[in-house]
Amino acid sequence: xxxxxxxxxxxxxxxxxxxxxxxxxxxxxxxxxxxxxxxxxxxxxxxxxxxxxxxxxxxxxxxxxxxxxxxxxxxxxxxxxxxxxxxxxxxxxxxxxxxxxxxxxxxxxxxxxxxxxxxxxxxxxxxxxxxxxxxxxxxxxxxxxxxxxxxxxxxxxxxxxxxxxxxx
Length: 168
Prior knowledge:
The chain contains 1 helix and 10 strands. The chain is mainly β and 168 residues long. Strands 1, 2, 4, 5, 6, 8 and 9 form a 7-stranded antiparallel sheet that branches. It has a 3-stranded antiparallel sheet with strand order 7-3-10, with no helix packed on it. The model is unreliable at 1-19 (pLDDT under 50).
């Protein structure tokens, strides 16, 4: 009896394993596989020609001066949105005892007169971006115009602008 039950159990197990692997359609001559993946929109940036400028002219001429280029690449085929923030709230701040300040305006490419004293500036869908699999970037010139009057306190004045880039 034990041998018969054992054989019946093995036959049942073999039948149920075979049934799970059985082909349901015996008339088809092809198989299809569907699969997909997603590459999220993204942009990359770097400081182009220079990211640390010394020797700004701070006199009464209020001369517009290049502070560097922003290089951008996006995988969307569109221009990027960039956001600009100033570490010193839109001022060049001196390393003197008074922490003297000189206001300035920022130019991004053809957009000029941006005042970072009001907070973050968002340059929507406007910053040129390179595209393609070779990764070439497009450069945008960044310039500032110090609002110095030639009578400012002595000291070395500086600020840091942080640029965040995002796809559209």
